[in-house]
Structure to design on (208 residues):
């Protein structure tokens, strides 16, 4: 179950690649410090998914996150939930829910890893700065240390509060762009948000 660009910061040619890497690590440490202090978060998001065929689809919704790999993504047509052990993908329109074990192979996408934390299995490089929704952000490029579904990614980090505001994820099958706003930290998200009981009459596909 799968479920934040505009280069403006200029450095002199005399700065080496190692200098860029050091800058990106300093930024990431501040992001980690911000999120290490919280237990949960809530945000409004927009998503653009572009498949290998070039067709793009957009959606928006609300995301809830709690530590220990718990998240809930609500859009107009789908709800994706995991409690860190089991995952549910529910389509009200189809009256269908797909249940599976939660999987994390280190390089797969999960909101906790990319949207509200730094993925540790990736190299990072500071590319520059950009404006996201009126907020000045650092742009950091991520490259996987080993094989996985994610080929590359970029994250946009707020320069003032070190929150992740946008992410772009490239896999072999698609390119996903997420933008976040109205971020609330320690919002008191109930644990009940991260479990799911299928309504009566819903088709259940259990892949566990």
């Amino acid at each position: 179950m799968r479920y934040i660009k505009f280069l403006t910061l200029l450095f002199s040619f005399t700065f080496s690649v190692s200098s860029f890497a050091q800058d990106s690590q300093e930024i990431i440490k501040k992001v980690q410090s911000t999120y290490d202090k919280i237990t949960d978060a809530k945000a409004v998001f927009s998503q653009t998914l572009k498949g290998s065929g070039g067709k793009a689809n957009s959606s928006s919704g609300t995301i809830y996150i709690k530590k220990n790999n718990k998240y809930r993504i609500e859009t107009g047509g789908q709800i994706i939930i995991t409690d860190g052990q089991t995952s549910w993908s529910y389509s009200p329109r189809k009256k269908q829910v797909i249940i599976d074990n939660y999987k994390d192979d280190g390089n797969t996408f999960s909101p906790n890893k990319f949207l509200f934390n730094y993925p540790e299995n990736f190299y990072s490089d500071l590319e520059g700065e950009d404006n996201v929704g009126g907020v000045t952000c650092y742009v950091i490029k991520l490259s996987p240390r080993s094989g996985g579904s994610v080929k590359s990614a970029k994250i946009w980090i707020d320069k003032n509060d070190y929150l992740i505001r946008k992410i772009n994820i490239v896999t072999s099958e698609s390119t996903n762009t997420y933008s976040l706003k109205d971020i609330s930290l320690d919002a008191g998200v109930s644990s009940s948000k991260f479990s799911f009981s299928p309504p009566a009459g819903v088709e259940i596909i259990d892949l566990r």
Observations:
- The first strand starts at residue 40 and ends at 51.
- Confidence is low (pLDDT under 50) at residues 1-22.
